[in-house]
Amino acid sequence: MKKGRLEAFSDGVIAIIITIMVLELKVPHSADIKALEESVPVFLSYLLSFIYVGIYWNNHHHMLYLVEKINGRVLWANLSLLFFLSLIPFVTAWMGENHFAKWPVIFYGFALLANAIAYSILALFLVADSHANSPLADAIGKDWKGKASIVIYITGIVAAFQWPIIGMACYIIVAMIWFIPDNRIERRVSER
Q1: Helices 88-97, 102-128: inter-axial angle, 10-degree rounding
Q2: Its Gene Ontology molecular function terms (predicted)?
Q3: DSSP 8-state assignment for residue 69
């Protein structure tokens, strides 16, 4: 199967996810600066989630650029990733509206963890379906960033039971790790 429909569908779903998140930002009912200050947790939640969705979109784009064709299991793995990405607006709004309280931060972490696992499975399937020396297999390598992310998410979730701020710090660390696209994939993309 050609990959064009998968890319177009994924781009559309991700665009809708971002749209839903931005629609959750409510305009203050007052022109007073105090009203704006009350929106800070909501905006910070939105900002972090926007960065995460952008990271997934960027890396998904680069990863698919390096493959020629896909199969049914890749379609399902991609759909799984899109499902977990679609949960981001819900947990983002819950966390922001509740000022980073324990349970929203824990569930936000679970959503991020589920996305990381789904993305890793998609990458695994794409690599398995290409030859051993393919540009994608070479670029992903041992996927230390993916494995480290999962460990940090789990650490953040566990820490959030006692200290939600530490959980949030863990989630921010993972975003920082992934913010700049992987040089190995960037190099392979530029070679093509």
Answers
A1: 160
A2: potassium channel activity; proton channel activity
A3: B
Q: What φ, ψ does residue 2 adopt, rounded to 5°?
A: -80, 155
pTM of the model: 0.92
What region, left, alpha or beta, does residue 181 occupy, with left being phi > 0 and alpha being psi -120 to 50 degrees? Answer: beta
The backbone region for 141, taken as left when phi is positive above 0, alpha when psi lies in -120 to 50, beta otherwise, is: left
Q: Look up residue 28 and give its amino acid.
A: P
Q: Is 155 helix (H, G, I), strand (E, B) or coil?
A: helix
Domain ranges across the chain: 4-191
* Per-residue pLDDT reduced to its tens digit, 96-128: 999 999 999 999 999 999 999 999 999 999 998
Spatial contact of 65 and 192, defined as CB atoms under 8 Å apart: yes
